[in-house]
């Protein structure tokens, strides 16, 4: 079966079958292909013409050879959804929805992922190295906190719009500034990452500043959320951002935001894209990217909302930013053997890279057999750095909360050793102080 594009219509040449599953491709103005899977009913005529989604005129279509044609007649034609109001192009990679389960929940569809349940966790508890995860004295900590008075406010208030600027606020929270747009990543400012204020993992390092102090200096335009775990999605911070911020969340997370009457929440599946345009001409493309993790905020909602990383692509200066969210890379067994590695990071690098600046997790990885499917050890962080074609990366997801049993000072040390083993410069993948600002041209402020 071949597809021909004539005057914004898609024409299907009959090839001996009367219907079947097919894939077609939309190519945006940069020529990047977006594959869409759909179902069509072909008539008995030689040609059958259908109208594409109304927003398709934004894209340049081209002739290509179709694949996966089924001789089993299809019963309906379902148009690929394009949300014109929010400029979201729905397009899952290669039409693959393997991460969607029939019960409405989600999964990690790769051999690199091994599921661990409550029984595995209970077996693990006697082995938990509570001494190893003990927080050292402040003078002995690897992570430093600049504090509000030492942050580079002049750079934050007047960033160079031709590059990417990142300020680490602790754990996975970043302020990203590019193309004149101020972007929050997973903002968490509370003392605990827990559903209860009196128990749960508590900070051993404070945020560099309060959310109120930051908002008094700059306007937050966009907030991207990787998933709904309490160390990445925190009620007080989200509610305080207010109705003017545009939120980007993985699939099925929007309902949580609706509780706070936030009007600009865009829900994306893996590989969905959003063209973000401001009235003053600023423009970014935001892409929801796959990662290997899980979700849940209670006892009964595990895997009921999607998890993701994010790519932000500058349209004026062409700079690309990658936020890794929370992810694993492989599953390591008790004897030290491991599964194959997660393939999506190379796909991300091929489709969206290279990235001028990336934020990649390096902590919360021990005990390794239990944590490896969902959290990167520094050695795997370096592999992700290479796979996504990151030119400069900043380590995150460490130095803030004690979530696992590795020594809190260990992640940067292992990161440097892993960079040495990979033959890479320590300057390619760095750790910074909480409150420190770095740029895509590798300048620390």
TrEMBL record:
Location of the Metallo-beta-lactamase domain: 182-398
Superkingdom of source: Eukaryota
Which species does the entry assign this protein to?
Powellomyces hirtus
A Gene Ontology term for the protein's cellular component: cytoplasm
Q: What is this protein called?
A: Metallo-beta-lactamase domain-containing protein
Q: Matching SUPFAM superfamilies, A to Z?
A: Metallo-hydrolase/oxidoreductase (SSF56281)
